Amino acid sequence: MTIPMIVLPDDANVISLFDVRFRYGIASGQSDGTLSMLQITIPPRTLVKPHMHTREDEYSLAVSGTVGARLGDETVEEIPAGSWLAKPRSVPHAMWNATSEAAQILEVVLPGGIERYFEQLAPVLREHGPEWTTRYNALAEEFGLTILDDWTDELKEKYGITL
User: Fold this and answer.
1) What is the pLDDT of residues 106-128, one digit of tens each?
2) Is the pTM of the predicted complex or chain greater than 0.85?
3) CATH topology of domain 11-155
4) Is the dihedral of CA 81, 87, 91, 96 positive or negative?
5) Cα–Cα distance between 23 and 76 in angstroms, integer?
């Protein structure tokens, strides 16, 4: 059951995946599983790994900065602050920041729980060695995600961005 609450800035959870920062105070555990609400900071010239969800829908608001996005077959190179994005499940998508200033995104994910993936993924991304890829792919599969490596290479080259 969801209860009224206030989560102060210092009480929010923070996870970094490479240099992308995910901050959340209302997640699956606080919403009776209905949603996760995340503040995402995408540093300059950074790509968020292209992927596709099979279990969640994502809704985003560009709060500050400018981002680019590819949703299925549509690519928009400059999405200004104040713009909204809908990323339904089973539609491949990617988001990036090709500018020299950080971008802030408010993301609502339905149903909640994606933060558990991030929590488990963060330590895997710090690992190296031959088993790293196996753990990375198994975790994506466990959470119903498809990682789009071909998009990653294409977007990195086209926009001069990195993970």
Assistant:
1) 999 999 999 999 999 999 988 87
2) yes
3) Jelly Rolls (2.60.120)
4) positive
5) 25
